Structures are given as C-alpha cells and as structure tokens.
Amino acid sequence: MTMKVFTVHQPPKLTGDAARDAERFVFVRDGFHFWAFILGPLWMLWRRMWLVLFLYVVAMTAIQIGLWALGASPIVSLAVDVLIALLVGFEAASLRRFTLRNWKTVGVVVGRDHEEAERRFFDAWADRGESPRPAAASTPVPAMRRSPAASDEVVGLFPEPELRR
C-alpha cells in the first residue's frame, strides 16, 4: 500500500484546551483528488472554499464566453472543460492550503491513510512535550552582522550578507 503525504495546519485561535484544539487541526493530503476532478464546484462547496469557488466560477464563465466569441466547437469547449477539471484535481491540495493561508503550518506527516497520519503526528507532538497552543507573537529577526574579514568581492554565486539598519 502506498504512503500518502499530509500537511498539518493549526488554526489561528486556539482555546487552550489541548484535546479540543487538537480536533481543529486540518490534515491536507497531497496528490490528485478524484472528487475535485469529477465535481469541482461541489467539492469546493463541501470544503467551504468560498473564494476559490468564486474565482473558479468567474474564470470558467470568462473562458466559456471567450470560446463562444471565438466560435469554438463544442468538442473544443468540452476538451477545455476536461483540462481545467484535471487541473483542479491535481491542484486541489494547493487550493485547500490557500484557503488555510491564515493558519500555521505545523508539520508534514506520512501515513497510509488520514487516521494513521493523525496518529503519527500527534504521537510525535506528544513525544516532543508540546501541546497545541497559540503561536507566539512574531519577534523581529536580528540583523545579520558583517564579519570583519569579509571583503566586497563575491566568491561563488552568493555575496556576503549586508548589514541591515
């Protein structure tokens, strides 16, 4: 049996109750999504991907109007629809991650199915002694210091980092 790769996303606001917060984590499987290919708009509704659905409807309407204006045959129109459906099927995981853009990506896990991936992730999470908790406010990254021995010459492909002020 093949192993599947999942990305794990933590919601932006946690309650502080580790058990309840763990239920809110979202596991997004990479790979081709058959139902997104067959029933794209319904799949988007089911996943509550409102912005993606809106953009899909607008794009499909514009494409169909453009094909009609060009006088494309129904076979060409059908071929375009199938190709777009294939694209949605292959990019479904990326579209889902786009809707979770305000969530924190906390890991990548591999498992035979969704249940095994969850078990592996939370086992590793517990082994690290962590519990789902709100992300700390971002702290500014210290500026890189230029070493005294660094010259202005570039060696290789990467120049020496400059001092930020």
What's this entry about, in short?
This protein is mainly alpha-helical and 165 residues long. Helices cover 48% and strands 12% of the residues. It has one domain (4-127).
**Strand tally, please?**
3
Tell me the overall shape: elongated
Helical residue percent? Answer: 40-55%
Mean pLDDT rating: 82
Rounded Rg: 23 Å
Query: In the residues, how many domains can be counted?
Result: 1
How many DSSP H or I helices?
Answer: 6
From the N-terminal CA to the C-terminal CA, the straight-line distance is 54 Å
* Uncertain parts: 134-147
- Strand fraction equals 5-15%
Largest sheet: number of strands, sense, barrel closure: 3 strands, antiparallel
Q: What's the SSE pattern? A: EHEHHHHEH
Q: What order do the strands of the largest sheet run in, or round the barrel if closed?
A: 2-1-3
Structural class: mainly alpha
Question: Can you walk through the features of this model?
Answer:
With 165 residues, the chain is mainly α. It contains six helices and three strands, in the order E-H-E-H-H-H-H-E-H. Strands 2-1-3 form a three-stranded antiparallel sheet. Helix 4 (50-70) packs antiparallel against helix 5 (74-99).
Task: Label this structure with key terms.
three-stranded antiparallel β-sheet, single chain, 6 helices, mainly alpha, 48% helix, 165 residues, 12% strand
Blueprint of the fold:
Elements: E1 4-10, H1 18-23, E2 26-29, H2 34-38, H3 40-46, H4 50-70, H5 74-99, E3 104-111, H6 114-127
Antiparallel strand pairs: 1-2, 1-3
